[in-house]
Amino acid sequence: MSILKKPLITEKSTKLSEKLNKFAFKVTKNATKEQIKSEIELVYEVAVASVNTMIYVGKSKSKYTKKGFVNGKKSDFKKAIVTLKDGHTIDYFGADNNTQTN
Fold it and tell me: Cα separations (Å) of 50 from 22, 76, 79?
């Protein structure tokens, strides 16, 4: 099973990647910084300078419906901000994906 779940592509993470060469990923909760670093280097073939991680606690949600109040909770997740060395970048939407067929 892979440590990386998916890249986080948001407005904030896009600005980080353009200006500071940092990329955000959603990872498994028990992943260490060294495991994340080795997985990124293996999958994307780039050199990683540093890894910062944070754990987000899911928010509780409630809404009123015809059947009464419904309570729930969003799931917890761990986010990793990966800083790449100069000259390296990650292209999520590579040139291979942009080909058109007639």
Answer: 9, 23, 14
Find where tokens 């073939």 sit.
Answer: 45
**Nearest partner of 21 among 79, 80, 85, judged by Cα:** 85
Query: Is 99 part of any domain?
Result: no
Residue-wise pLDDT for 21-72, tens only, equals 999 999 999 999 999 999 999 999 999 999 999 999 999 999 999 989 999 9
Output the domain CATH number for residue 37.
3.30.70.330
Band (7; pLDDT cuts 50, 70, 90): very high
**CA 37 to chain centroid:** 13
| Cβ–Cβ under 8 Å, residues 23 and 60 | no
Q: For residue 19, give both structure tokens.
A: 């200006």
**Looking at the 3D structure of the chain, how many domains does it have?**
1
CA-based torsion, 96, 87, 43, 2: positive or negative: negative
Q: pTM (2 decimals)?
A: 0.80
